[in-house]
Amino acid sequence: MAHTRGAARLVAILTAASMGLVACGGSDTGAEQDAKAPLQIWIRKPPGSPTEKTAKDLAAAFTSATGVPTTVTALFDDFETKLQQAAAQKQLPDLVINDTAQLGTLVKQGLVREVDKAGVAGGDQLTPAAWEAAKGADGKTYAVPFSAQSFALFIRSDWRQKVGLPTPTSWADLDALATAFTTKDPDGNGKADTFGYAVPGSTKRGYTSWYFTSFLWSAGGDYFNESGGKFAPAIASPQSVAAVDWFKKQFCVDKSVAPGAVTMETTQAHPVFETGKAGIYFTGPYNMGRFDKNLGKDKYEVVPAPAGPGGKAAALAEGENVYLMAGSKNEAGQKKFAEFAISGQGQTIGMAGDTDGSIVRLPVNSTVDLASVRKDTRWQVFDKIYKDTGRYTPNVPEWTPFRQASAETLNAIVANCASDIQAELTKLDETFGEELSKQGVAAS
């Protein structure tokens, strides 16, 4: 694809540029240090959003406490591309707050500094799972954890009650509910204009794979089998094939997915749910404030996704890290900001109460009491999902190529109802094997 080729060219430029920024192991090559130098902070949030305001509040509180000036830049669309362009121009920000899944790519590109975990003040208060998400495939730590999250089903409870079905406790229940939402006019307008699922099925940023991962695991499928730090592809296993078959059926047999899903990013899928076009949406807690405002808190419920045929529920665990970028003139300030962000004060500011400005979804600081900061008990649902069934993506050196390849395959399968699932997943399995070898972690 043209996008992939363009990204490859940019990475080549970036790799060359990063050699001028960092030395082996991600350490700085000798930028003159100034402990009072302003810190440029980038965060992947929409400009002008409540989350941007919270990020600025966090930075302002840090500046008030330390005297170190800060500037926050909120970017959302093409965030990683813009970061790569900044690296190529040797204009990296000092700090980046971004997804845990980006760690491997940032490490490979040499854009982040290694973190001395033992030297981070307050680091001993962070959950072990959060620290694991800051660890590279080489076992070294390359970020400071900031936020955690998992995902749940958002279901139109008013629609569910109208069609007379219970809260789903199995995939069969879930599909029956989606079919009823599609065929039984749950909004009562006399038109066939409602659907079951809202699905962000675009290949951009690997969204199809990102959405499907929890269901793949719940069916007993997987991307890899891992042993001793080595990986073998598992995406063409019978369990994985069965999970994809279930997913495809929603598009091609039940036709219970809202139209346009194969090109939808998350920002386009959110309105599908909140405007009453679909009644089931698997998403994160960050949408509750928005949906409460635009749809109404009394019209939907938040429940864990049921276990699949594999018999064990699983939910993708994610979060955001504070990345200390290479080449900073204020490494001491970088560390101080990360320490402030994980402190009780920093985490509480980031949580933003029950508003839609949260940049800390679930606190990574174990001393912060979620219930005392947020009175909305729905947050407890996500906290329980994260703790009981949350699972991070495989700790390969770089996850992005696998996520993108699987997204493109899954997207192609559901977009073409004549597609051969086994054949497509076998090809993806081979692609995975080649990439694992390229990354030096293929099982022999």
From TrEMBL:
GO terms for molecular function: maltose binding. One of its GO terms (cellular component) is ATP-binding cassette (ABC) transporter complex, substrate-binding subunit-containing. Belongs to the bacterial solute-binding protein 1 family. InterPro entries: SBP. It comes from the Bacteria. Keywords: Signal, Transport. GO terms for biological process: maltodextrin transmembrane transport; maltose transport. Residues 1-23 form the signal peptide. This is Sugar ABC transporter substrate-binding protein. PROSITE patterns: PROKAR_LIPOPROTEIN. It holds the Pfam family SBP_bac_1. PANTHER family: MALTOSE-BINDING PERIPLASMIC PROTEIN, MALTOSE_MALTODEXTRIN-BINDING PERIPLASMIC PROTEIN.
